[in-house]
Amino acid sequence: MRALLRRRSVLWPAFVVVHLVLAASNLAPGVTGNSFNDVTGFYRVWAENAVHGFGWPAIDQPWVYPIVALVPMLIPLIGGSAGYGAIWLLQVSLLNAVAFGVLITRPSAPRVRAAWYWLAALLALGPVALGRLDVVSVALAVLGVVALATRPWLAGVLLALGTWVKFWPAAIVLAVVVAAKERWRVLIAAAASTAAIIALAWFALGARYLFSFVGQQSGRGLQVESPFATPLLWAAWARIPGVKVYYDTGIYTFQVSGPGASALTHAADWAMPIAVAGAVLVGLVAVLRNAEPRYATAALALALTVGFCAFDKVGSPQYHAWFAVPVMLGLMVSARRFALPAWLVLASTVLTQLIYPWFYDALLALHPVMLAVLTARNALELIVFAWALVALWRAPSTKGSSR
């Protein structure tokens, strides 16, 4: 079996099978319900409204996403309303194919291992792996981490583009700036790309709401999947007066309210910046101790990426698509050391698919088994975050390495 998995010729058939399975699960969702609704509903409507003169998101009206996210939403319009979903799936599958092809162009054992892990992570997440905007940012981030060792300037460009699709690749950029030898070339390229995007959007497109995505999350309550909402969900199951799950029609998510919700929301607002600052501080200490740069970069990227989800008040299932990228980087650096978080991330991703879309209704109905699954999933996120910090603190040293 190991010899089979090492064969490059098997990788592409496996890639095709995985994407066909995921595409079919979105086009014919069955018991998965409306798991593809973000694409055929929100993305399609935003794109159609824009081209028909009802306002361009991030340009003349506020939007929850950075402006480059418009590009992958507009392209599927070539298939019309009826074909929007199919073209979306074709588009993101081709983008994944490009990233996958670049990853295995040099079929070394570390890259082959990372490729198999990415396919496993896609299957573990299920329909959401292709049915959300995050798939675009993940593919760009994969291209970025592959380019990091040989073309750091290109890595900076790709990671910047990914950040302007969905903000999370900024975690990898930050990790590189703190710990990698290539920090300056990546930072300069990322900054130049960001400046170019801002200039184009601001001066050419007149994007008055270019930065509106920054504040769009601030008014949200506790989404049911967030670790901060877990105590309240158990309180609702125990029928504590005033605690309930409700649907927020403004942002189209299920949230939880009741005694303590305001305090937990406030705690979540502070928890993420504190977690990020703490991870960066540990990373800086590791650098001062002459930690091996690639290992420290991978560990810090994992801590920051998982921290963006574990300490957030949203915690949507598609966020787990992010986790594969820093794990892949870690597996390419040290498969033995990153084996544990790789398995933990896969386990949490499988639980995420069980939560959404398969048994989401049961979760909303406060079924104790699904509450236990959600609690376990959220606990795994915190465990992976803690592992990354410990791994960073104990990072192997490379005396005299140039930085």
Q: In words, what does this structure look like?
A:
This protein has 403 residues and is mainly alpha-helical. The chain has one domain. Helices cover 65% and strands 3% of the residues. The chain contains 18 helices and three strands. Strands 1-3-2 form a three-stranded antiparallel beta sheet. A hairpin with a 4-residue loop joins β2 and β3. α2 runs parallel beside α6, α3 crosses α5 and α9 runs parallel beside α13. It is globular. The two termini are 40 Å apart.
Tell me the quaternary state.
single chain
How many individual β-strands? 3
What share of the residues lie within helices? 55-70%
By helix and strand content, what is the structural category? Answer: mainly alpha
Task: State the strand order across the main sheet.
Answer: 1-3-2
Total domain modules: 1
Query: In what range is the share of β-strand residues?
Result: under 5%
- Gross morphology is globular
Q: Report Rg.
A: 21 Å
Count of individual helical segments: 18
Name the average pLDDT: 93
How does the major sheet shape up?
A: 3 strands, antiparallel
Poorly predicted spans:
none
**Separation of the first and last Cα atoms:** 40 Å
Give me the strand/helix succession: HHHHHHHHHHHEHEEHHHHHH
Keywords: Cell membrane, Membrane, Signal, Transferase, Transmembrane, Transmembrane helix
Subcellular location: Cell membrane
Protein name: DUF2029 domain-containing protein
Membrane topology: Multi-pass membrane protein
SSE layout and pairing:
Elements: H1 2-6, H2 8-27, H3 37-51, H4 70-74, H5 80-103, H6 109-125, H7 134-147, H8 152-163, H9 170-179, H10 183-204, H11 212-215, E1 222-223, H12 230-237, E2 244-248, E3 253-257, H13 261-288, H14 293-310, H15 324-333, H16 339-358, H17 360-364, H18 368-393
Antiparallel strand pairs: 1-3, 2-3
